[in-house]
TrEMBL record:
The keyword Hydrolase applies. It comes from the Bacteria. Residues 4-32 form the Protein YjdM N-terminal domain. PANTHER family: PROTEIN YJDM (PTHR30305:SF3), PROTEIN YJDM-RELATED (PTHR30305). Keywords: Hydrolase. One of its GO terms (molecular function) is hydrolase activity. It holds the Pfam family Zn_Ribbon_YjdM. SUPFAM superfamilies: Prokaryotic SH3-related domain, Zinc beta-ribbon. This is Protein YjdM. The lineage of its organism: Bacteria, Pseudomonadati, Pseudomonadota, Alphaproteobacteria, Kordiimonadales. Belongs to the YjdM family. InterPro entries: YjdM, YjdM_C, YjdM_N. Residues 45-111 form the Protein YjdM C-terminal domain.
């Protein structure tokens, strides 16, 4: 059997290669596997030094962060365990000890 991936549009198993493109003869969809891999890597959430973050990772805050609507501050070096990645401006949901549930930007954390 062929080791080529099925068509992402119609799921047909009859795809074939034409140079750098993959083509589906059933729906005429053309795509580039290299572009799909690059797009998936571009959507990855990265910390301040470039490490890829995943759900459940432990991170450290690298900058004092003021909490909006409160007088409290998240200090440098605060360890946050078990982060959850979400879509949006603040791409990390977490629970910070002493403060509670909070959204963080990945540019202000470093993976432990």
């Amino acid at each position: 059997m062929s080791d080529l991936p099925p068509c992402p549009k119609c799921n047909s198993a009859y795809t074939y290669e034409d140079g750098a493109l993959m083509i589906c003869p059933e729906c005429a969809h053309e795509w580039s596997p290299a572009a799909d891999a690059a797009a998936a890597d571009a959507n990855a959430v990265r910390d301040s030094v470039g490490n890829i973050l995943q759900d459940g990772d432990d991170v450290t805050v690298i900058k004092d962060l003021k909490v909006k609507g409160s007088s409290s501050v998240v200090k440098v070096g605060t360890k946050v365990k078990g982060i959850r990645l979400v879509d949006g401006d603040h791409d990390i949901d977490c629970k910070i000890p002493g403060i509670g549930q909070m959204g963080l930007k990945s540019q202000f954390v470093k993976k432990i």
